[in-house]
Design brief:
Blueprint lengths: L1 H12 L7 H21 L4 H14 L7 H29 L10 H30 L8 H11 L4 H8 L9 H21 L1 H8 L7 H11 L1
Helix pairs in contact: 1-2, 1-3, 2-3, 2-4, 5-6, 5-8, 6-9, 7-8
Length: 224
């Protein structure tokens, strides 16, 4: 959190940094890495610290960037994120053969799958309507189809869960091998099942309105 406010102050007061989009993007990346590594050295959650720092930089630091810095930072960070996600999922796929000798507890896997689906659905839907009622306004309300799409996307378990269980100490956690194998199956299954059918579900729940070419030409000629 402190690092996010610090980089915001630097971008606002030290205008020489804004003369180059490369310097701005480098500063954002360096602060993010320092936040993660500092938290890990102190024995805290590096992922949580990085997410908190990123949220603060998105709300404050990003608006102090130059127009070129905003454009370059968005493309660069999206590229790094896409590459990191591809690397992590590739790592999971390659390691699946390494963990084939690990014990598997299928009742635990099925129970975790059920908790992810049911728990996420009721958690998102109930929390949305609860906060919507507390707000006391009907503006910017989401339809049930839009809420369903957001809930469906939450069913997918990412590689962060697999990375966290890999960090468990095998001497402290007696059943680490069962937890690792179960989370690996959960990540792969939810990614293949829910991730693979995401375009179909989105198109079914939120169909896009298609305008015929003839109607578009008629509308253009009518306006001219």
């Amino acid at each position: 959190m402190i690092a996010g406010f610090l980089v915001t102050y630097i971008l606002k007061r030290v205008r020489s940094v804004s003369h180059s989009a490369i310097h701005e993007v480098s500063l954002l990346l360096i602060v993010g890495f320092l936040t993660y590594f500092s938290s890990e050295i102190l024995g805290q959650s590096g992922i949580t610290s990085l997410v908190t720092c990123s949220i603060i930089m998105a709300h404050y630091a990003w608006y102090n960037l130059s127009p070129q810095g905003k454009h370059v930072s968005s493309i660069s960070i999206q590229t790094f994120g896409y590459a990191a996600e591809a690397f992590v999922f590739s790592y999971i796929g390659l390691c699946s053969m390494y963990y084939k000798d690990y014990p598997y507890c299928w009742p635990f896997i099925i129970g975790a799958f059920f908790i992810v689906v049911v728990g996420r659905y009721f958690g998102i839907v109930c929390s949305y309507y609860m906060f919507n009622c507390a707000k006391g306004s009907d503006n910017n309300t989401l339809s049930f189809a839009e809420i369903s799409v957001a809930t469906y996307a939450a069913f997918i378990r990412g590689a962060i869960a697999f990375g966290l269980v890999e960090m468990l100490d095998e001497h402290t956690f007696k059943y680490k091998r069962v937890i690792v194998s179960s989370v690996m199956v959960l990540v792969i299954s939810t990614t293949c099942i829910f991730g693979g059918f995401t375009p179909i579900v989105v198109n079914y729940l939120l169909p896009t309105k298609k305008i015929d070419v003839v109607d578009m030409d008629a509308l253009t000629s009518e306006n001219t």
